[in-house]
Design brief:
- Helix 4 packs across helix 5 (137-150).
- The chain has helices spanning 20-31, 47-50, 107-123, 127-135, 137-150, 170-175, and strands at residues 4-7, 11-12, 35-39, 52-53, 62-68, 85-88, 92-95, 101-104, 153-154, 166-167.
- The radius of gyration is 16 Å and the shape is globular.
- The protein is an alpha/beta fold.
């Protein structure tokens, strides 16, 4: 039961016309009830202008994610048309595989937080949601995407830079 994909990889300055099959997969997955989440570039550039793959893929079933630090400073790419929301991506603690931990940063660490949020929203006990997902996966996951984007924590300087204007707020999305 797949509910989300995570693409913590990409091509800086890539264009959708250079990767039509790559971009089309997000629509195919969406029709099956799967949202796809992708990280934008770690460079502080406007991806609407310079491009980025998969961030600029034109799919309603794709969520473009960038990163911020604990002070709500954007640390990576932005773009009102293609970057949907922000998630923490600085000072993220991860395991190294040898019983140690390391602090890391970047969009590749912010994006899985959003993918995990989608999975958690699916796991919330809601008979109505599960029934709707089975009957109409396409519109149900679009509604879920809207819940996620409409319940961000707004950050004033991000208006005009990030589509939702805010940072992931799982608590608010879960409540809705």
């Amino acid at each position: 039961f797949v509910v989300a994909t995570n693409a913590s990889f990409g091509i800086d300055q890539g264009k959708p016309e250079d990767a039509p099959l790559w971009c089309s997969i997000y629509d195919e997955l969406g029709h099956e009830g799967i949202l796809s989440v992708g990280s934008t570039t770690n460079e502080q550039v406007d991806v609407d202008e310079v491009g980025d793959l998969p961030t600029t893929c034109p799919s309603n079933f794709f969520i473009g994610v960038t990163a911020c630090d604990e002070y709500n400073s954007l640390t990576s790419g932005f773009g009102f048309n293609h970057v949907d929301l922000v998630a923490p991506g600085v000072n993220i603690l991860t395991s190294t595989g040898d019983e140690a931990y390391l602090e890391v940063e970047g969009t590749s660490y912010a994006t899985p937080l959003v993918s995990g949020a989608i999975a958690l929203l699916h796991a919330a006990p809601s008979v109505n949601f599960a029934h709707q997902l089975k009957l109409d996966p396409l519109n149900t996951v679009l509604a879920l995407k809207n819940i996620l984007l409409n319940n961000v924590t707004k950050v004033e300087p991000w208006a005009g830079l990030i589509h939702s204007g805010g940072r992931l707020n799982l608590s608010s999305a879960m409540t809705e």
